[in-house]
Fold this sequence. Notes:
Helix content of chain A: 40-55%
Shape of chain B: elongated
Largest sheet of chain B: 5 strands, mixed
Shape of chain A: extended
Oligomer: heterodimer
Helix content of chain B: 25-40%
Largest interface: A-B, 60 and 52 residues
Radius of gyration of chain B: 30 Å
Order of helices and strands of chain A: HEEEEEHHHHHEHEH
Number of helices of chain A: 8
Largest sheet of chain A: 5 strands, mixed
Order of helices and strands of chain B: HEEEEEHEHEH
Strand order of the largest sheet of chain A: 2-7-6-4-5
Structural class of chain A: alpha/beta
Strand content of chain A: 5-15%
Strand order of the largest sheet of chain B: 5-4-3-6-7
Amino acid sequence: MEKKRGQIKKKDTFIDMTAMCDFTLLLLTFFIMATSFKPEESVEVVTPASTSTKEIPDGFILITLDKDGRVFYGVDNINAKRSIIDVVNDDKQLGLTEEEKNIFVTSSSIGVPFTQLKGFLSLPELERKKYLDNAPGVPVDTTAGYATNELAYWINLSRQYLDKGGRIAIKADGSSGYPDVSKIITTLGKQKIFNFSFITDMKGIPPGTALYEQQQLSKQAAGNPE
Amino acid sequence: MAELNNNKGKTTPRVDLTAMVDMNFLLLTFFILSSTLSKPKAMEIVMPYTDDEMTVDDQNKIKKDVALTILLSKENRVFYYEGIGDDPEDPPHVKLTAFKDVDGVRDVIIDKKKSVERLIANGTLRASDKPTVIIKADTNSTTADLINILDEMTINAIPTYAVVDITEQDQEFVADAEETYNLK
């Protein structure tokens, strides 16, 4: 580097990166310990947004509806799933092996009718994922008969193994048609389930509305006694 | 940082930790993006009790003055009319609106609430009467429409609402309204 006379001497600055390195390792440790991996979803669903901020309690039944109207069924409780697959195996005489039953227990959602269940569970993992892209989904209709409405059968069976019958959560894609979601609601109604939840994205409460004022009042009430 | 200063005139080797920090940030980004801290949010729904054995008479009679019927149709269209539309002599005036923050369904619902309050104030309705919204979705509407309208119920604090099956008469209303507004 040339230096002309009168120019200020450049100094090299050595920044000590030890502190930065410690800090990033601490953050990394926090994220590894405090969070869990996102659960694998069988199918991509974009849910609509709502202002609700309630969370679903654990041990719920998840009914996923994708935009083509296919229904996928899952339960958020491993012990319950073990009992459920045993009963289904005996009742429908599917002839599942222990390994296939384990795959059912550890997988997220099922989207095949009973006739295809054994075939689906016997596939290796990569092929199962590809199968799910074209799977027909669990058959649903508006009758109460378990022969055609397999979703009703799954729900009725699972509720026996969940605490207080388990909360039903429907994760429906925003662009799925109303008739498809109506079939699910009718199936639940025929089982006398009138209390359920829709999983939604978050949306802020618009200002100036009744709900906004309720929220402000409850914030004030929470602030006052303190 | 501790340093050994026993080197006779040689400069101590300094380790440049920049690469280490870069790698740490990459790992951090991976773990942040692949994990989740929050559980998904859910919107609770309560549907009206129905039974195959029930007849129309058993169901609660809704007064015309408190009711607002909303019809959901394709392409996120929202039609609405006052009352329950069961009087053949007096067909309802079906209007079109949309899911907008201003001049949309929300304003329609707020106007309905105000008109019910006025009717209670001048004695036409009892104090216990509350605005009721009846939601009917036709086969071309989507789940997003349904969830948006249910969310509007919560946003405007409507105490009584119900999602019911659409009738043939309502489908005719929708078809007529589409003609009136020159929609396809």
